[in-house]
Design the sequence.
């Protein structure tokens, strides 16, 4: 026989004669011992004898019957104490009852009670507002305390600090009220309140059960009562603990448990059934019986946490419901009776519910409690689930049912029941739901409601927010307010910060309550000016944020006039600031800690070199000691003190900027292991109840241990067990658990792979890359705590910062390059990923977008008079105007390609959006026609008509953002229009000329032509000789705002995309289109610009209803001759002109 007691195993006897003794090495204290035989002896009879020997124990017991109490009267009128120690043990028959009560006239009170099976302590010190208030708040402990087992209670109070301990659980709290002493008048009552109408009392139900060893500040109250001392009044209290004959039975299975009892003879017509039940399940059958008038049945069940009685007949099923949340784990009394033509059910003290019958009712021969047999005897069938819970005090027709006889097989029948005990457990105590998650439970498990907590998962363990602004950048975020959780799944909650992602360093900005300049006058060292700063994050969150950042800084703007920072005689500080730990700091503006100097001393530019701060010169004019504090261990500034502004004309002006931090130590926290014996070790992993482990890895070896931590018998391990399998294994005392994820491709491919493992008391999971999640639910009623005692090893077969530890470990180096090669989604929109030892940066120079990840829109707003010209100086050697097609030209055109992308938003039509033209007067034009429809024009030869494509007849001049993508490869052109439609064709050359004459009014965003981003270059290089800006040009955020508008209104907008190859019916025309850019030597890209100088020359002719093609060709030839002449006398030069300009420039510049 093996008996499992806690974590100790004891060997029992192997025959009927021998006696086995075991002595414990240390004494234990237990509320009860339970022995559960696991199997019969195959060669003998059933038998068990156990003797437990304890230590000498003094017990003074008082029995309270629900109407009795003990009063301890003071020798004086009132008792005032600053320290109290109250201890007792109790066991209760009921879930309600007062254990202790005392109060004073000034508003003090103390009440210890049982309420709904929980221990509640109400304590108030000198707060009259709470005396008559209904908003008293109790400190509660425990659950299901009406279990008839002994529970110990200890109350320790010193001033306002209180410790409440019940069994092994302690709760610390601080009392409400203004005083430090508890003043109680006349007496303390135990077990009840003898005067229910006494002012200040709010619970009148007395305690029903036993209290043992009751001590109040060292006084044995029960001993005084037993000796009948005059200061004790005992009302109906006996001094022995009675044992009630309450035999309970537990229904173990929600599918197969049942108890069948015979229906006894009733003294009158009808029948009556009474019993008590308790459960956590919201559904379950309580009682079912076949009526004498078949096929009628009567069912009493719990349905959706309510009690429901149903009368089943062949035609109807009348039902009534009563009660709310009867699955609260408390005992509930229910009675069911029939009399005459009515069936009545009553729950606790609630009003009865009745069903009317058509005939007299008599119960059948058997009543089924808790469920029905699987054989469907007499039509008994579980409506949903069988009952899981406890029942007691069952009586049928006023005759109590002896459950001991049922267990002995002498009465009724049963299956999967446990007798003489109620096996209910409160699975929400302790509450395993983290971060404020609400716990609910069923009989077998618990659930966590994480709504509004900012966390998710089975136990609300995983934060839904990123840990830093750097992490948001990696997910593609742009500047804005974000909620960050600096300690991830740790105890700290999320806080809102501003993430500035406009630079390569992503800055986290935390503001406080006083960011405006403040003027200070009239302060002295004895009565200084003090300002405390309250940040948008708690001090604990700030410490975690600062600790996880690479660098932090905070600007201190300090101006002064006849106000010194330090005393000129002995250097005593007259002003200072306080750091995050509450320490006084006297260095200012960037200087090192411990040095009483300012930034001007560091820079050697103080106005008076005899002093280390400008303010210490003590002049009548304003001086400045502004600087930046960058020693992050002292940040942020929590308080500033100014003490020298009381002299005539003396004043100071200060402003403390927000806390700004950049970098995230955990993001690029990498280490490389290049020896088989290399490893890192850290302190023991603190993961008793929950732990989550995540990291990226890449390797070329077929197997290896990522992480391991051992205990005496427990362990946790993550490893690559084969080239394509990752395993997560652990043991918390229930035997090893292994989760494995198998990949369809090898994982030792020198590419980055993501791994995340989590273990909680509820479940375990393993996730690798985008493979399906491997999940395993933890068994109920088993060991929960993972107990580890060795070091945590990383990279060795047997969380802090691996990169820091790697600096000191042989065979391990800091960083692990290869981030860019392992992911294509780090830099967007043609951005180029540049590898660094600990991370990467995005080069957006060839992208039309900006920002750290090349995802931020670059937009410009134009009016009619504004224009931008950008000149490209690229010496191409093949710029020629070919008047006839050759086979080599055809092959060249087949290989040529261009990519054009841009976004626009306007209300103007017609309008020129984009043109590309060459010295040979070939061009591509993207315009809005007079009706606002989009048209794409290709013109290659002056002796042929241009090819025109119109993707949609609808107007795009609708003040909405539209994105255009044009891609040509060889003879095929692909067009993608967001908000677009199918592709059609158009004509009329005058549309291009009309659009060119009107220019463009609106916003253009993210313009890209092959590897060039002209609009972005204009904004970033305004001082360059290649850029000419005329008129009013305004940088805009129309692209970003339009994205946000679409994001917030996706449910109401239908976005269609038209995308496909364009092929002309004529082969010759296809060849012409294919050669548009292959013959280009100098390319001019114009966004929202005048079409070309030759289009401008035809503005007068556009007044007519039509333009003759012959005139158009003549002007193109004239323009070409001028450009050819210029090409011969100057260096190759291409210019980009954006938007319309009312003034023509000379013939050497090219307008688009």
Sequence:
């Amino acid at each position: 026989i093996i008996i499992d007691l806690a974590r100790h195993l004891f060997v029992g006897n192997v025959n009927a004669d021998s006696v086995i003794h075991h002595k414990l090495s240390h004494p234990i204290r237990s509320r009860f011992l339970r022995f559960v035989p696991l199997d019969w002896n195959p060669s003998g009879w059933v038998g068990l004898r156990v003797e437990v020997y304890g230590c000498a124990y003094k017990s003074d017991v008082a029995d309270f019957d629900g109407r009795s109490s003990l009063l301890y009267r003071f020798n004086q009128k009132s008792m005032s104490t600053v320290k109290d120690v109250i201890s007792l043990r109790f066991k209760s028959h009921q879930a309600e009852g007062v254990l202790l009560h005392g109060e004073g006239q000034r508003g003090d009170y103390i009440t210890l009670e049982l309420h709904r099976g929980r221990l509640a302590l109400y304590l108030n010190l000198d707060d009259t507002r709470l005396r008559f208030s209904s908003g008293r708040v109790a400190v509660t402990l425990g659950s299901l305390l009406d279990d008839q087992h002994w529970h110990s209670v200890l109350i320790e109070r010193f001033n306002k600090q209180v410790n409440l301990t019940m069994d092994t659980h302690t709760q610390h709290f601080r009392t409400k009220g203004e005083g430090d002493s508890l003043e109680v008048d006349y007496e303390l009552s135990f077990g009840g309140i003898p005067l229910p109408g006494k002012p200040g009392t709010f619970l009148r139900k007395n305690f029903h059960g036993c209290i043992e060893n009751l001590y109040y500040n060292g006084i044995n109250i029960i001993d005084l009562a037993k000796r009948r001392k005059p200061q004790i009044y005992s009302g109906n209290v006996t001094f022995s603990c009675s044992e009630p004959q309450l035999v309970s039975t537990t229904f173990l299975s929600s599918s197969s448990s049942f108890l069948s009892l015979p229906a006894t003879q009733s003294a009158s017509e009808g029948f009556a059934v009474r019993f008590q039940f308790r459960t956590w399940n919201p559904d379950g059958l309580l009682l079912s019986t076949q009526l004498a008038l078949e096929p009628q049945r009567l069912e009493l069940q719990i349905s959706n946490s309510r009690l429901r009685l149903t009368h089943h007949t062949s035609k109807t099923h009348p039902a009534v419901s009563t009660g709310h949340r009867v699955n609260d784990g408390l005992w509930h009394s229910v009675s069911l009776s029939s009399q005459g033509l009515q069936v009545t059910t009553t729950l606790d003290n609630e009003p009865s519910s009745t069903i009317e019958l058509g005939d007299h009712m008599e119960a059948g021969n058997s009543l089924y409690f808790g469920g029905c047999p699987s054989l469907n005897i007499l039509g008994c069938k579980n409506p949903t689930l069988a009952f899981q819970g406890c029942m007691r005090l069952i009586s049928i027709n006023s005759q109590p049912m002896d459950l001991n006889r049922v267990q002995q097989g002498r009465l009724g029948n049963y299956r999967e029941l446990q007798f003489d005990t109620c096996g209910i457990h409160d699975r929400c105590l302790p509450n395993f739901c983290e971060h404020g998650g609400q716990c609910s439970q069923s009989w077998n498990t618990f659930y966590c409601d994480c709504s509004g907590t900012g966390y998710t998962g089975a136990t609300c363990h995983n934060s839904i927010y990123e840990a830093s602004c750097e992490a948001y950048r990696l997910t593609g975020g742009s500047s804005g307010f974000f909620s960050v959780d600096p300690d991830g799944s740790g105890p700290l909650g999320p806080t809102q910060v501003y993430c500035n992602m406009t630079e390569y360093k992503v800055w986290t900005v935390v503001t406080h309550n006083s960011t405006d300049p403040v003027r200070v006058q009239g302060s002295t060292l004895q009565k200084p000016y003090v300002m405390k700063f309250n940040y948008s994050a708690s001090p604990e969150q700030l410490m975690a944020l600062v600790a996880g950042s690479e660098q932090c800084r905070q600007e201190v703007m300090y101006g002064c006039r006849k106000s010194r920072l330090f005393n000129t005689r002995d250097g005593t500080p007259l002003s200072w600031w306080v750091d995050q730990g509450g320490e006084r700091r006297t260095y200012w503006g960037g200087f090192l800690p411990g040095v009483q100097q300012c930034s001007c001393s560091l820079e050697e530019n103080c106005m008076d070199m005899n002093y280390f701060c400008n303010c210490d010169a003590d002049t009548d004019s304003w001086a400045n000691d502004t600087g930046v504090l960058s020693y992050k261990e002292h940040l942020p500034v929590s308080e500033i003190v100014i003490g020298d502004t009381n002299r005539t004309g003396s004043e100071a002006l200060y402003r403390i900027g927000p806390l700004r931090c950049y970098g995230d130590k955990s993001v690029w926290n990498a280490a490389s292991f290049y020896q088989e014996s290399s490893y890192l070790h850290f302190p023991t992993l603190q993961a008793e109840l929950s732990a989550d482990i995540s990291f990226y890895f890449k390797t070329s070896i077929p197997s290896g241990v990522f992480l391991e931590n051992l205990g005496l018998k427990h362990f946790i391990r993550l490893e690559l067990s084969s080239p394509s399998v990752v395993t997560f294994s652990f043991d918390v005392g229930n035997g090893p658990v292994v989760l494995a994820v198998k990949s369809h491709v090898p994982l030792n491919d020198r590419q980055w792979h993501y791994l995340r493992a989590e273990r909680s008391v509820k479940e375990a999971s393993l996730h690798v890359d985008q493979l399906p999640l491997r999940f395993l639910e933890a068994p109920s009623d088993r060991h929960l705590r993972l107990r580890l005692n060795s070091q945590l090893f990383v990279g060795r077969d047997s969380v802090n910062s691996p990169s820091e530890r790697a600096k000191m470990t042989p065979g391990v180096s800091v960083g692990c390059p290869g981030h860019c090669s392992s992911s294509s989604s780090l830099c967007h929109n043609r951005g180029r990923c540049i590898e660094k030892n600990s991370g990467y940066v995005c080069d957006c120079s060839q992208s039309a977008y900006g920002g750290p990840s090349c995802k931020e829109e670059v937009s410009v707003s134009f009016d009619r008079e504004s224009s931008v010209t950008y000149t490209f100086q690229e010496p191409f050697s093949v710029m020629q105007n070919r008047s006839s097609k050759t086979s080599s030209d055809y092959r060249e055109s087949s290989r040529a390609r261009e990519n054009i992308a841009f976004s626009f938003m306007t209300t103007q039509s017609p309008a020129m959006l984009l043109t590309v033209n060459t010295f040979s007067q070939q061009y591509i034009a993207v315009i809005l026609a007079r009706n606002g429809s989009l048209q794409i024009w290709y013109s290659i030869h002056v002796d042929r008509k241009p090819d025109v494509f119109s993707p949609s007849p609808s107007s795009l001049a609708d003040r909405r953002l539209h994105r255009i993508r044009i891609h040509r490869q060889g003879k095929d052109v692909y067009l993608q229009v967001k908000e677009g439609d199918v592709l059609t064709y158009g004509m009329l050359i005058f549309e291009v000329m009309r659009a060119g004459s009107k220019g463009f009014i609106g916003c253009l965003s993210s313009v890209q032509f092959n590897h060039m981003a002209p609009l972005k270059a204009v904004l970033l290089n305004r001082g360059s000789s290649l850029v000419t800006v005329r008129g009013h040009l305004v940088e805009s955020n129309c692209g970003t705002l339009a994205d946000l508008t679409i994001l917030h209104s996706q449910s109401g907008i239908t976005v269609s995309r038209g995308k496909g190859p364009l092929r002309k019916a004529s082969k010759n025309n296809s060849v012409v289109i294919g050669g548009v850019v292959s013959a280009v030597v100098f390319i001019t890209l114009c966004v929202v610009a005048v079409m070309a100088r030759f289009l401008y020359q035809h503005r007068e002719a556009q007044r007519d209803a039509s333009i003759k093609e012959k005139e158009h060709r003549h002007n193109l030839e004239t323009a070409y001759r001028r450009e050819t002449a210029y090409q011969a006398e100057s260096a190759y030069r291409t210019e980009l002109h954006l938007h319309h300009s009312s003034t023509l420039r000379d013939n050497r510049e090219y307008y688009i």
Q: What stands out?
A: The chain has a mean pLDDT of 77. The first strand starts at residue 2 and ends at 5.
